[in-house]
Write a structure and sequence with these properties.
It contains 25 helices and 33 strands. It is α/β, with parallel strands linked by helices. It has five domains: 230 residues, Aminopeptidase, CATH 3.40.630.10; 159 residues, 3-Layer(bba) Sandwich (Glucose Oxidase, domain 1); 71 residues; 95 residues, no CATH class; 269 residues, no CATH class.
Length: 883
């Protein structure tokens, strides 16, 4: 049935025509500027008119870096005509242009800004030199070949160090395509794909792997000087959207879309032209039952603006969609077929799968799990556009290799025919599709049952129940065009056969007792905003963060889309695992914490959730033995307890109440300004120490809150400073020198707290974080302490390099999370009388030790044999050298 439609379209598609249109569009997009985008959109608009597609129009939305649609912040406009990187003569080498926007627009990274007239002379340093502490002020940093630049921390780290930007030669499959230049659309320091307003200036270049290796060799051989020239500018522009509408017998629409503005032939110029060709040949077959809408614009951001302008689609204004992005056009490539997701059921899933089955001998397919990434994000239930996505396979994503030469005309025609057959069948539904859907659903459920019986998922019958609900919802999506009695009859048949197939399945869920899943079963939330939280636009810039898997590349998006205000989070997690992929306990914990964060940020409404109050915390602290006047060394990981009303501020207030005005609280505010610590630094978290930069603190949110909201004092040390609140705070912090041994008995806050008879409190954090043990190491002068070389940011923004003796490099046996209390040191210390007092709080546990007791017992143990602190793993390069 579907093969007949495919074969007919295969004959009707004009390969030469779509190749010509694709090349024309590709040339217009190639400059990657906002003006290039406008010209591309105008061409697509004119092409639709020329092909006789009715109701073609251009719409425009702000490209100002500030306007928000469905939590997508619109990008800034960008223009450039010059962007050149020239190596200047040095050590026998002549002048050489190694990147030039005029030669290839990908050479200048989109979003770059301009240099002064005549250019700017800069040094080029390698990533290895950068991480080793070289002064990179006004430099370009040449990144290592596999350093990730997309939506990562790379650009922010480079700019924080005072560099102008970076040079990258990273591409996919660099050894197969050594002369390709990577296209950098998402090389920003925010959590989005584009530069937004009020972001820092940068100038970055993209070069081929072959060129990158040449620069790297020359930079390692000695000083490398270059001239950079750029006239690039960010400015307020517009995002164009080209649309057209083929009226059907009914007003509801089937959507055809493929994005513009990625200047790559098969990603997605060809998808746009294939969509237009699809509309042309469908019109030849008469008026469809459903109207067919074509929409072409910027991926994610342009579409989000367009869909937001049209309102909410839950009323079936748009019945479903087919995404033409990266449709099959590369010779001998597979087709990865993504179905519509659970949040927005669409009968197009069955049409796509039926077509796969009927063409299995002619084409290679894989049926993927439904996801919400890129332009599948509109599957989200708050937008409600169920989308199928037949995606062609290729291995050269986002690079200059994607010219017209990568497109094979015959394959392009077949890929277009495949997509066109789906669109035509979706727009002209028949009763046979419902019968076929029943057969496909039953086959899916049978596969699930077999997996459960063979223990592929563990004996979890709830997966099968989720599978049935998923199939039933997709069956019921046929209600939009078929007689409801017919749909109900098929759904009842599915239910009867499901009941038979579910007999004998185990009801045991092996993960039911995981604490975070059990906690999740007590939480019910519902959505408050439309669209997935892409850029956290509701939050101030400094509070935005990257959500797990960038929100759209993992199970969290499935959980959000299936959230209906009735299902608990444990159920949503299980549904997401049925849809996409299994989740381990650590990832489940991460998701639940992220959903609590989104609720606090205004994206979700909490209908039910266990919450810990200030009164509970104070009572727990008192039960633990904390009393008025105590001095506490506080290590914290409060999110391990579950949700706390009022967050970190509540915890600090509770601690203050427990110790009263006569007590003292000390919090570690450690940073990582290391150039050398037992080896050269290779950590991208490195920053020269800057007391004003709270983001440098790596010991959690509680210490940051103490400084920003409670005006805590802070000691001067540049790697192991402490913050203090209360009566003895100044006494404990004042003598801590900036470059002193970090855990010196006489000067560090640890030693001063010991003088005050301190207690060590682990607020839901493992005893593995007990910094006090390092003071015992210092006192016992263990042989594995070493000198650290660090950098400090000076008030004039210069950098000072310093050495700190008796620092703390390498590994320890107690660096093992919540298992630390079973390590050699703590096992021996407890046997010698060390008391670890513990009290539960929510999901977590509070643990307290007496510092004086730990010091006396620990000192005896370490003096007897310092190796009690080191692990016994023979492959540990640090610990094994002292055996």
């Amino acid at each position: 049935m579907m093969k007949e439609i495919y074969d007919e379209f295969l004959k009707l598609i004009d390969g030469k025509r779509i190749m010509k249109h694709t090349e024309e569009l590709w040339h217009r997009e190639f400059g990657q500027t906002s003006e290039s985008q406008r010209k591309a959109a105008e061409y697509v608009h004119e092409l639709m008119i020329a092909e006789g597609i009715p109701n073609a129009e251009l719409n425009f939305f702000p490209a100002d870096g500030e306007t928000v649609y469905h939590d997508c912040i619109m990008p800034l406009g960008w223009k450039a005509s010059t962007g050149k990187l020239t190596l200047l003569p040095v050590a026998g080498y002549g002048e050489e242009v190694i990147a030039d926007y005029q030669s290839h627009p990908f050479s200048l990274v989109k979003g770059s800004v301009s240099t002064p007239p005549g250019g700017k002379i800069v040094r080029i340093v390698t990533e290895q030199q950068f991480l080793a502490g070289h002064d990179v002020k006004d430099c370009l940093v040449l990144l290592e070949p596999f350093t990730r630049v997309v939506m990562g921390n790379t650009l922010g780290t480079v700019l924080d160090r005072g560099a102008i930007g970076y040079i990258t030669d990273a591409i996919g499959n660099r050894y197969k395509y050594p002369d390709a230049i990577g296209w950098r659309n998402a090389a920003t320091e925010n959590n989005g794909w584009h530069v937004f307003a009020h972001e820092r200036d940068f100038i970055c270049f993209s070069v081929s792997p072959r060129t990158g290796d040449v620069i790297r060799c020359r930079a390692n051989a000695g000083a490398l000087i270059a001239r950079i020239e750029s006239d690039a500018q960010r400015y307020v522009a517009e995002i164009p959207v080209a649309t057209a509408l083929i009226p059907g017998q009914r007003e509801e629409e089937i959507l055809v879309f493929g994005h513009m503005f990625e200047p790559l032939s098969n990603d997605d110029c060809h998808g746009v032209c294939a969509g237009i060709e699809t509309a042309r040949i469908i019109m030849q077959k008469g008026t469809p039952e459903f109207s067919i809408r074509l929409a072409f614009t910027m991926e994610l951001y342009g579409y989000t603006a367009y869909f937001a302008s049209r309102g909410n689609f839950l009323g079936n204004e748009i019945v479903g969609a087919c995404n033409f992005d990266v449709s099959r056009c590369v010779k001998d490539s597979k087709v990865h077929c993504l179905p519509s997701s659970f949040g927005s059921p669409f009968y197009g899933n069955y049409i796509q799968e039926q077509l796969i089955n009927e063409l299995a001998d002619a084409m290679s397919f894989t049926l993927k799990n439904p996801r919400y990434f890129d332009d599948s994000a509109y599957n989200d239930s708050t937008i409600g556009i169920g989308t199928v996505w037949p995606m062609g396979e290729f291995d050269f994503a986002h690079s200059s290799i994607q010219t017209m030469e990568v497109i094979d005309e015959a394959t392009y025609v077949k890929g277009t025919a495949f997509n066109a057959a789906i669109v035509y069948a979706a727009a002209n539904p028949k009763m046979e599709y419902l019968d076929q859907a029943l057969k496909i659903s039953l086959r899916h459920l049978e596969v699930e049952r077999e997996k459960l019986l063979t223990n592929s998922y563990g004996s979890d019958a709830t997966r099968f129940a989720h599978g049935f609900e998923y199939e039933q919802r997709n069956i019921e999506s046929f209600r939009c065009f078929l007689d409801q009695d017919s749909v109900s009859a098929v759904a009842q048949t599915l239910r009867k056969r499901y009941d038979k197939r579910s007999v004998g399945l185990s009801k045991n869920d092996p993960e039911a007792n995981e604490k975070w899943r059990k906690y999740a079963s007590q939480i019910v939330m519902k959505r408050k905003t439309t669209g997935l939280p892409h850029n956290l636009a509701k939050l101030p810039k400094e509070k935005r963060c990257r959500l797990p898997e960038g929100i759209i590349y993992g199970n969290l998006s499935n959980m959000l889309s299936n959230m209906d205000g009735k299902k608990d989070l444990a159920t949503l997690l299980r549904e997401s695992e049925y849809e996409y992929q299994p989740v381990n306990a650590k990832t489940a914990e991460k998701y639940i914490k992220s959903l609590n964060f989104l609720a606090d940020s205004g994206y979700l409404e909490v209908l039910k959730r266990p919450e810990i109050t200030e009164e509970e915390i104070v009572a727990t602290l008192q039960k633990l033995g904390i009393a008025e006047g105590d001095t506490l060394l506080v290590h914290s990981s409060t999110s391990n307890c579950g949700y706390i009303q009022g967050g970190t501020a509540t915890v600090i207030r509770s601690l203050q109440k427990a110790v009263s005005a006569s007590g003292t609280l000390l919090f570690p505010t450690f940073t990582q300004p290391y150039i050398y610590l037992g080896g050269l630094n290779t950590n991208w978290n490195f920053r020269p120490y800057d007391k004003s930069d709270m983001k440098q603190i790596v010991t959690g949110v509680i210490p940051q809150t103490a400084l920003t909201e409670f005006h805590a004092l802070r000691s001067a040390h540049i790697t192991h400073s402490w913050a203090g609140i209360g009566k003895n705070a100044e006494f404990c912090l004042a003598s801590h020198g900036k470059y002193a041994p970090p855990c010196d008995l006489s000067t560090s806050p640890l030693g001063k707290a010991l003088e005050k008879g301190a207690k060590i409190l682990h607020f839901a954090s493992p005893v593995a974080t007990t910094t006090f043990i390092h003071m015992i190491e210092d006192v016992c002068n263990v042989p594995f302490l070493n000198t650290a070389v660090c950098q400090e940011r000076l008030p004039d923004r210069g950098i000072k390099t310093v050495a700190i003796e008796k620092h703390l490099p390498g590994h320890r046996d107690f660096y093992c999370g919540f298992q630390a209390q079973e390590c050699k040191f703590f096992t021996a210390a407890r046997a010698a009388g060390l008391e670890l007092r513990k009290v539960s709080l929510g999901l977590g546990e509070l643990c307290m030790m007496d510092a004086t007791q730990l010091f006396k017992i620990g000192k005896r143990l370490v003096e007897k044999d310092f190796r009690i602190l080191l692990c016994d793993n023979p492959s540990c390069m640090f610990c094994s050298q002292y055996k």
